[in-house]
Structures are given as C-alpha cells and as structure tokens.
Write a structure and sequence with these properties.
Strand order of the largest sheet: 1-4
Helix content: over 70%
Order of helices and strands: HHHHHHEEEHHHHEHHHHH
Number of helices: 15
Structural class: mainly alpha
Oligomer: single chain
Shape: globular
Strand content: under 5%
Radius of gyration: 25 Å
Length: 380
C-alpha cells in the first residue's frame, strides 16, 4: 500500500513538473515572440487577475469561504505601490509632493504618505499590510463562527466601504485615483523592454503562487482545510480549531491579492476606486467559478478567460457584456458547479457509464445466444 502511494505521488509530481515546464515555455518564450507589446501588456494585466484567482480558489474552493471582498487586499497592494511610484517620480523631479497634489492645491505631503517614499518600506507594506488586515478580520470573524452568506456579505461590505473611503480622499487621488507613473524602481515605464520585464515578473509570480498553493493542497493542511469545508463540527471534535485553519487560507488569499495589486499598478498605469470595489471583487469570483474553484488551474484559466472575453466583447457590446457575464455565471453555478475544469471528468464519467451499459448488453446477448435456456430462467 505504501509503495502504491509513493508511486502515485511520484507520478503526480512528474505531471506537475511537466505542466509547470509547459506553462513556463508558453509564458516566457512563446508569448513574447508572438504577441505585440500591447497584447503582451494586456496579458500581464490578466495574469494579475489570475494571481488573485489562485488565492480565491484556495479560500473558496478548498475552504468554502465565499470571499466577495478580495478587492480590499488588491487595492491595498495597488495603492501602496502607486504611492511609492508617485513619490519616487516627485523626488526625481525635485518636487515636495506628487503632481496631482499640486494640481489639487495640496502643498504639504500627508503624513501617511511619508513611509512609502522608501522602496523597502513600500515592498514590506505590500507584503505585510494585506495579510495583517486579513488576519485581524479573519480572527474577528471566524472566531465568532461567522460563515456562509454572512461572511460573504461582510467581505463585500468591506470592499464597498474601502472604495467609498478612497473616493472621498483627495490626498490619495479621489475618484480618479493615481496614475501617470514614469518609472518602476528606476526603470522607465515608457521603455518596451521594461514593460516586458513587468510581464516576466507577473508570469514568474503566477507560477510561484500556483506552486505554493499546490504544495498547500497536497499537504496535511490542505486535507484539513477540505475537512473544515465539508465537516467543520467533526474537525472541531477531533481537537482542531477550524477558525485557525480558515484564517490561514484567508491570509494567504489576501497576501496573493496584495501582490497582484502591486503588479497591476505599474502594468496598467492607473489605480482607482473603480478597480477595487464591489464589481471587481465579484468579477474575480466569477472567473474562479467559471474556471473551476476546486481545481488548481481552473481559477487561473477562468480568470484569464473571463478577463480576455470582457476586453474582447465589451468593445463591441459595451452594455451587453455584463448581462452575458451574469448569465454565464448562473449557468456554470447551476449546471456545472465544478466549472469548466469539471467538464472533462463529467463527460468521462458519462462515457464510461454508457460504455459499461453497452458492454453489459453485449455480454448478455452473447450469453443468451450460447445458452437460450438462461433467458427463460431469468424471465421466470
């Protein structure tokens, strides 16, 4: 039995290694060779969404937590990066405040901007702040056993509150947000080579995030997370605290979202409350649901596919894409709960079942022809 388990794990590891190799070739060799600079930058934006989706797949698909507020953590990472880039540009030009503040008549830099002038502090904030806030929120929510629809509504309310807060703060860009970044840690963003570098950073980050989540899924913690999702009370009776298990998954998802937001800012060149509110948070969730929330690659492919479809169809059908997206989400949730990644196992099961029935009919006919009395006995 042990040898069979070891063989299965070895086969699974080889399959995963082959998959990562193919993905790396597609992202680092094929995509830059066949895509234009504009399309490559667009794909980099989609990869940021895929990074968020991987975290949602872990928290929702494996942990059962319907996270409708990932825009909060995405926005924290994005705004911290934007504030650093704005201050770096201002220092390079010899200004005391960023240009948008000068236009708005703000002559003194707000105190909460000052720490993010340092690159190490900004990077630390991107990595720590989303995870820390998620840990505090998760502790307050999961320790009180808030779950299901109540948790989903609470997380969505947080995303709406953050968007409203940012909209009313002129010191952080207000409704229009922060934009017009000139450089990324000393590299000019107007240079196509540097923009390609951003794509490679996003691609490498996505592969690293997927590898980390795969490790978590195949670990003891991954099994415990699924157990909490399916039978929370039984896990509690076994001596584990389900709240702690959920908090870890929630923090990891927030950590990924913060990194994705930080990459999104220089890639797209703008971050505003419209990018982090309720609608973007739901869009993240739709991509995960369509791709397949319980699988490893389903959220990635779903997020990229939905983002690409939105870009392609919204140009021709600006008012119709939202309805199409909603219909697609309803169809997937209602009829294919496992998402597009679950279509092949479902079709395979149907084909296997039909093959078994056909084989049974053939065997019955052969036995009947060989021994006609068997049919009479069965009829009696």
């Amino acid at each position: 039995m042990t040898s069979l388990v070891q063989r299965w794990r070895a086969h699974s590891s080889l399959t995963a290694l082959a998959g990562f190799t193919v993905a790396a070739l597609l992202l680092f060799a094929v995509a830059p060779a066949v895509l234009s600079d504009f399309r490559l930058n667009l794909l980099a934006k989609f990869l940021c969404f895929a990074i968020v989706a991987v975290g949602i797949g872990l928290a929702w698909g494996r942990g059962g937590m319907l996270t409708l507020g990932q825009g909060v953590f995405f926005g924290i990472g994005a705004y911290v990066m934007a504030m650093h880039l704005q201050m770096a540009d201002a220092a390079r030009l010899g200004n005391d405040v960023p240009e948008f503040m000068e236009i708005a008549g703000i002559r003194e830099l707000p105190s909460f901007w000052t720490p993010f002038a340092s690159a190490p502090v900004a990077l630390l904030g991107i990595l720590v702040l989303p995870a820390l806030i998620a840990a505090v929120l998760g502790y307050g929510v999961f320790k009180r056993r808030v779950k299901g629809a109540y948790f989903a509504i609470l997380s969505q309310a947080l995303a709406a509150a953050l968007a409203i807060l940012l909209t009313g703060r002129q010191t952080i860009g207000g409704f229009t947000g922060l934009s017009d970044f000139r450089a990324f840690f000393g590299f000019k963003l107007s240079d196509p080579a540097n923009r390609q570098m951003l794509f490679f950073i996003a691609a490498g980050t996505l592969l690293g995030v997927v590898a980390l989540v795969r490790q978590l899924m195949h670990s003891r913690y991954g099994e415990l997370l699924v157990a909490v999702r399916d039978q929370e009370e039984r896990v509690r009776f076994l001596g584990y605290d389900p709240a702690n298990v959920k908090i870890v998954a929630y923090v990891v998802a927030a950590f990924f979202a913060g990194i994705a937001g930080a990459l999104f800012t220089p890639i797209v060149g703008i971050i505003s409350p419209a990018d982090i509110g309720v609608v973007p948070s739901i869009a993240f969730l739709i991509g995960v649901a369509i791709g397949g929330r319980t699988t490893l690659l389903g959220p990635v492919l779903g997020a990229i596919g939905v983002a690409w479809a939105q870009t392609a169809f919204s140009e021709e059908f600006p008012s119709g894409w939202t309805y199409l997206q909603g219909v697609l989400f309803i169809v997937v949730v209602g009829f294919v709960p496992a998402g597009l990644a679950g279509l092949w196992p479902m079709l395979k099961g149907m084909l296997d079942s039909r093959f078994r029935r056909s084989a049974l009919v053939v065997v019955t006919e052969v036995l009947t022809e060989a021994d006609p009395s068997a049919e009479k006995v069965e009829s009696r």
